[in-house]
Write a structure and sequence with these properties.
The protein is built from 9 helices and 6 strands. It is α/β, with parallel strands linked by helices and about 230 residues long. Strands 3-2-1-4-5-6 form a 6-stranded parallel sheet, sandwiched between helices. Helix 2 runs antiparallel to helix 9 and helix 4 packs parallel to helix 6. The C terminus is likely disordered.
Length: about 230
Amino acid sequence: MGASTPEPGSAGSPCSSDRGGSAGRAGARRVGVMGGTFDPIHHGHLVAASEVQSYFDLDEVIFVPTGAPWQKADRTVSPAEHRYLMTVIATAANPHFTVSRVDIDRGGPTYTMDTLRDLGAALPDAELFFITGADALAEIFTWRGADELFRYAQFVGCTRPGYTMDPEVLAKIPSDRVTMLEIPALAISSTDCRERHSRGEPVWYLVPDGVVQYIGKHRLYQSPPTSQDGQ
């Protein structure tokens, strides 16, 4: 049987007003892990993390910018330090959110297996929930160590409204290890944000204000100058 899917709009467990709200819950700490290139991080990422944090009553969500994403070896990715700092800026206001350098400092291509193994070793008493987009989840059996991944964490697949995941892929995923959640703000994408900025179009309100300012300050995602521009 495939992954479980809550009814659209279901509230899940209520979000406590402070981090002490999970103190009375029995069992291990529950920690979300949101890996991604974050080039740039946008409100879709933040809303997804917030919704998952509330639904599963997570104590913390750790954002983990990739060091060198193996899936994107064929295209240019912004330097890891820029992506890390944008993620720190974007998450700073939420007390449930933190950012880890584990994938950046490891070096070499970033694989989810290594991310979960390293965080599991650092947090031996925590139950991990790996948060990813449904598009990425659909390709999970192409990931390194795919057969072992579900031993390290529960998986949460965040979907856009109207998105339907291939039922054959869902059927292969252990139903007790994956939950699908619909996140309206996932209509935003990092690719669209980069392309809009390169065309001189605004990305205000698609990404956090501080990230907009960081992109401008460091001149990220600008179109290369034409020969006429260089004269």
